[in-house]
Amino acid sequence: MRVAIAGAGLAGLSCAKYLTDLGYTPIVLESRDVLGGLVAAWQDADGDWYETGLHVFFGAYPNMLQLLKELGIEDRLQWKKHTMIFNQPEKPGTYSRFDFPNLPAPLNGIVAILRNNDMLSWREKIELAKGLVPAMLRGQKYVDSTDQYTFSQWLKQQGVSEDVQQDIFIAASKSLNFINPDEISAVVLLTALSRFLQQKDGSKMAFLDGSPTERLCQPLVDYITDRGGEVRINAPLKEILLNEDGTVKGFLMRGLNGAADYIETADVYVSAMPVDVMKVMLPNPWKENDFFQKLEGLEGVPVINLQLWFDRKLTDIDQLLFSRSPLLSVYADMSNTCRGYANPERSMLELVLAPAKDWIAKSDEEILQVTLAELQKLFPSHFSGDNPAKLLKYHVVKTPRSVYKATPGRQQYRPSQQTPISNFFLSGSYTMQPYLGSMEGAVLSGKLTAQAIAEGRLVANSSNLQMQTPQPATNAATV
């Protein structure tokens, strides 16, 4: 059975991978000339990679870790020490650490907080415990109910001071959804904190040993094609064609470089496109359907990623860093954290500018200059004196619509992977799954889509006693 999938990001490729495991033949159609979607990367004229974002893997990503194991590439994750490191704006050039000891959860997290005396006073530690511990004990049902509040509103209800929010949670919310605590839904932070605190290695971080396109997406393509599937780049979807009954007749594909348009037909169709693109591609007859109308409640958040190459080492820290800058979100010296980008003599900083809504339309040069001004505060010793660090080159990658913007109330608009159209399914981190807008959410959504297709086939053929029932892909989140 053929399944046409529009989009070769993590959701589309994961969906195709699990479909091949179930005996289907997926055809993945990617509009751009690069794999990966929101984790895409490119090589410049010097052969250096630059990416759409700073992609960090967590111990609390069971589906991603299972996928890497199934592909035989789990050794490509470079695990870092279990710590979280924050810049201290009041002491430029210094850091504050939360070091997690080798203890069971949540004890390791509690000890990490108690040991930190740079960012949190004892009064603030008590405030934090009074707010977070009861929320963790009340379970996911309670966490889900907090989608009506921003995280700032929720913290205020718990009696947590503004100082604690400024010290920790601005950095955390920007790293999770690229917006501030007064915008982000409380469900996002509380879901992440719940998983980080309840799993011993939940907040432990890893970096891929090279570009996501080459080291993660290409193995997925190889797995799919080795089992009879296809993955095509430069294959943009032009229109979703319908039968008279409203089901999908085919994908009308745009011909490039003077080639004629053509129709890709299959037994089942999947959109693994971002929600903003899916809304544009939605056929008119479907727009009256309540299921698809809910998509109007979702939109992507703008993100800007910068990669800067310098003439010297700025830091030897091998870890993700939380800048606590009003402009920058998180950053890392990729020459330390990533084997494929390693350089013992020069730094290559990768930084996320967030919130980006006021900067997405500005020029690369304007974005660069404001970023360099922030770096002077983070690394004062390297950008002052007679011999300041020199920028050798840079890349700015703008994503006007990234993961869905998780403001309060968005949960009710997130669709299931199965739609009212019998031969059409959705995949993407915006679809309903417990990991929200993340790489883990994208992988899990693809797996759930494959399951839904298999289950739909089972229902459709339940009267055929000779049918071989495919086994659904394992959902590591529920194992």
TrEMBL record:
Regions annotated as coiled coil: none
Keyword Transmembrane helix in record: no
Keyword set, alphabetical order: Carotenoid biosynthesis, Cell membrane, Herbicide resistance, Membrane, Oxidoreductase
EC number: 1.3.5.5
One Gene Ontology biological process: carotenoid biosynthetic process
Major localization class: membrane
Any one GO MF annotation of this record: phytoene dehydrogenase activity
Database matches in InterPro entries: Amino_oxidase, FAD/NAD-bd_sf, Phytoene_desaturase, Zeta_carotene_desat/Oxidored
Cofactor: NAD(+); NADP(+); FAD
A single cellular component GO annotation: plasma membrane
Location relative to the cell: Cell membrane
Pathway: Carotenoid biosynthesis; lycopene biosynthesis
Amine oxidase domain boundaries: 10-453
Membrane topology recorded in Swiss-Prot or TrEMBL: Peripheral membrane protein
Cleaved signal peptide residues: none
Family recorded in the similarity comment: Belongs to the carotenoid/retinoid oxidoreductase family.
Protein name: Phytoene dehydrogenase
Organism of derivation: Fischerella thermalis CCMEE 5268
Taxonomic lineage of the native organism: Bacteria, Bacillati, Cyanobacteriota, Cyanophyceae, Nostocales
Gene: pds
